[in-house]
Amino acid sequence: MTTSQEELLPATRRALLHRIAVAQAEGRAPSLVAAVVRDGRAVWYGSRTSVDGHAPDENVQYRIGSITKTFTAVLVMRLRDEGVLDLGDPLEKHLPGTGAGEATIAELLAHTGGLAAEAPGPWWERTPGSLRPALTDVLGEQPLLHTAGRRFHYSNPGYTLLGALVEELRGAPWEEVLRREVLELLGLHRTSAHPQAPHAGGWAVHPWADVMLPEPAEDLGRMAPAGQLWSTTGDLGRFAAFLVQGDDRVLSAESLREMRTPAAPPEAADVGAGYAYCLGLEIRRSGERLLVGHTGSLPGFLACLTFSVEDDVAAVVLANCTSGPLLSALGADLVRIVAEAEPRIPEPWRPLKDIDPSVLELAGQWYWGTQAFALRLTADGFLSLGPLAGGGRRSRFRANGDGTWTGLGGYYAGEQLRAVRRPDGSPSHLDLGSFVFTRQPYDEGAPVPGGVDPEGWRGIG
């Protein structure tokens, strides 16, 4: 992962260093490490520390808290892609007897299963996992606080159940499955369930005095799939590249796009804040930029992994304090600094190698009622359909191989687009989920639902 830091301009590197230096100083973090990944490769590492003569590098472990959930979600998606389970399956189908089995696997991934946020009993993050040896100890007598599927309610026990599901279906401990199916394949050799030297110690910084208190580093036991992992900026940079690009040995790019798609109804406050939860990942709006990733915290540690798919820039930030710098804002700033100072250079435009004439003749202007739309053929072999002016419904479409296309996003996601042809083979109209698109507004020669007035268009007179 180590690459020349000359790949970023000196001014960009200084801006990154300045930003983390301000965060460490103002946030009073004992140490803070960061990395930036661009085009799938680490292009910058930085650190700040309160210890003279020592600066942690990209190989020093920190605890990453709930970023662990993203790793657990990847394991569940692998099971889905193998056909072992369906995201719509109720948990009871694969892991019976939990008391929370009515929640579906997708709902658990999206924190919409209705479960409590925390485990009952003493603060689970600062007490040994041996106090909660069984799932019943994690879930309590009444696991469900809300009707499954109705609202987003972040749940650590929910991801404990997903870890137990992985163990049940793989017949091996969660940690072993994770190492075999994700960590080793992606080369994340410095990511582990327990700390491995060199690693940072966790600290609590007094809110009103510049003094510190060591935090315990407990083994979370059953709740490990929700927050156990330790990792480094080097490893998390590699993991961020995987979350953007995919790796067919672990999970396809298409499945990762699904993981990055909002899956939970946001709370009213989240709508205003530009926040949504997906399947083991979060989306946050930062200015005009959409950032995907996850944050994490455990007593003594803060963590953030965030990336912009459009800019192909990711940032990782780790600190060893219970509270302090706001790492989600810091990570967003690191992405912004690189994306704005050194914007992504697009690939050269190249014409298509070949084109089916029957597809080419569909390109151009179409009308849904009186609204003008443009259908374009894109260089990647997809179709795009969207309004010629202003906002409105738009989507890309993937060919199905039978003359139809399936919508990939927005209002038309999953909907089928097909061209209806006249007896002579020429296109009459487009049918998109029962909507009829015609070459002219309310074309009387096309089967416009409700018909077209036989007297045609007219003025007032």
Rounded Rg: 26 Å
Distance between the termini: 75 Å
Relative helix content: 25-40%
Provide the low-confidence segments as ranges.
1-5
Q: How does the major sheet shape up?
A: 8 strands, antiparallel, barrel
Spatial order of the strands in the main sheet?
12-13-14-15-16-17-18-19
Question: Would you report the number of β strands?
Answer: 19
Class derived from helix and strand content: alpha+beta
Q: Categorize the overall geometry.
A: globular
H/I helix tally: 13
Strand content: 15-25%
The chain-level mean pLDDT equals: 94
Q: Could you outline the blueprint of secondary structure elements for this entry?
A:
Elements: H1 10-27, E1 31-38, E2 41-49, E3 62-63, H2 67-81, H3 91-94, H4 105-109, H5 135-139, H6 156-170, H7 174-186, E4 203-205, E5 212-214, H8 224-227, E6 230-231, H9 233-245, H10 253-259, H11 268-273, E7 275-277, E8 282-286, E9 289-298, E10 301-308, E11 313-319, H12 327-341, H13 357-360, E12 364-368, E13 371-377, E14 383-387, E15 395-399, E16 404-407, E17 416-421, E18 427-432, E19 435-438
Antiparallel strand pairs: 1-2, 1-11, 3-6, 4-5, 7-8, 8-9, 9-10, 10-11, 12-13, 12-19, 13-14, 14-15, 15-16, 16-17, 17-18, 18-19
Helix pairs in contact: 1-12, 2-6, 2-7
